[in-house]
Amino acid sequence: MRLTVRTNLAMRTLMYCAVNEGHVVRKQEVAKSCDASENHLAQVIHKLAQAGFITTVRGRSGGLKLNRTPDSIRVGEVVRSFEASVPFTECMDNNPDAAPNCPLVDVCRLKSAFSTALEAFYASLDSLTLADMVNGNSGLRRLLAVA
């Protein structure tokens, strides 16, 4: 299993905001620190704002900041918000127009096994908060703190 680049950037962005909590950070700063293109990051920021994780501030001194405390943001919640629309396998696609190509779909037990595994994966991530990712992590703070 591999998470999408957007999910990875979302977590990097949230960690950047958490390390610099209380400050409005600029998209350019986040992009540079997270080694991301500003255009790609803009899409991630938009989705994070829609999901209520961050607030964006317009204007000359605009940017973004956390909308919630780091200890209230569960890693599983973030990952779900970016990954839930991407089916793990074709037989798990809930889109009625996307008929599975697999001839075993009606008799295969893998779908159930994958569902159970995904639930365990998300449950594990739900036990972690953004605060867990940044608190006591001096190396991360050195890399992401605004100078």
Automatic annotation (TrEMBL):
Recorded GO MF terms: DNA binding; DNA-binding transcription factor activity
Domain of life: Bacteria
GO cellular component: cytosol
Keyword field: DNA-binding, Plasmid
SUPFAM superfamilies in the cross-refs: Winged helix' DNA-binding domain
Protein name from the UniProt record: Rrf2 family transcriptional regulator
Organism from which the protein derives: Pseudorhodobacter turbinis
